Amino acid sequence: MTKIGLTRPSARRKEPTPDEQTQLLLDYGVAAERVHQSVEAVLTEMLLALDGETALDEEIEIVVSSLARLGPKIRDLLQKLDAINFGEAKLTVLGPEYQSQSIQEWRITVRNIADMFLEDIAEKKSDAAAAARGRGVPIGPTPKLSQADVDWIWERREADGWGPDRIVNGLKRDRNIAVGKRTVMRVLGLIKGASPYVPRDNHKYLKRDAERRG
Fold this sequence. Notes:
Low-confidence stretches: 53-57, 208-214
Distance between the termini: 63 Å
Number of helices: 8
C-alpha cells in the first residue's frame, strides 16, 4: 500500500508544527517525498497513479496526523477523490484517536456528523429561546418605539381621545415615526392575546450593548 501524507499549517499553541507532523507521518511509514502540504499535491500524485505514470501501488492510503484545522481541506479532498473514482482509497487519522476508513466511509461519517451538529445547534437555539420567553425576556427584532413614544401614544389616547388611526398619523407627522396600526393597538392593549409591547429602551439587545459600553 502506498502512503501519502498531508500536513496542515500550525498557528496555535501546543499544536504540532508542520515539521513535527511530518515526523509523525514518517514514523508511520510515509516516504518523505510523499508528504505534502496541499490537497492539490496529494491529488496530483494520486492522478499520476491512476494514469500509471508512477510506480505507486494499487492501494493508496492518505495519512494525516489529526483532523484539527484540516476541515476545509478534508471536505475538498473527499469530494475530489469521489469525483475521480478514488472512493476505495483509505484516509487514516493518527490522532488523537487512530481511525482509518475508505473515502466512501469517511464521506458518510462526515455527513452524519454534520447532520448531528446541525440538529444539536437547532435544539440549543430552540431551548435558549424557550428559556428566554420563560424569564419574560423580549426576543426578536428591535422595537421601533421608545418609552417616550409609548408615553406619547397613551397621552394622545387618554388626554385627547385619539383612536389608533389618528395616532399612527400623528406619530408620522409629529415624531417622524412610521409604524402600523397593529403596533399602536398592541401598545394600547387592544389586540386580544397579544403580549405587552416592550419599548426598545428595555429590549435585551440594546440593554446588553449599553451595559458593555458602560
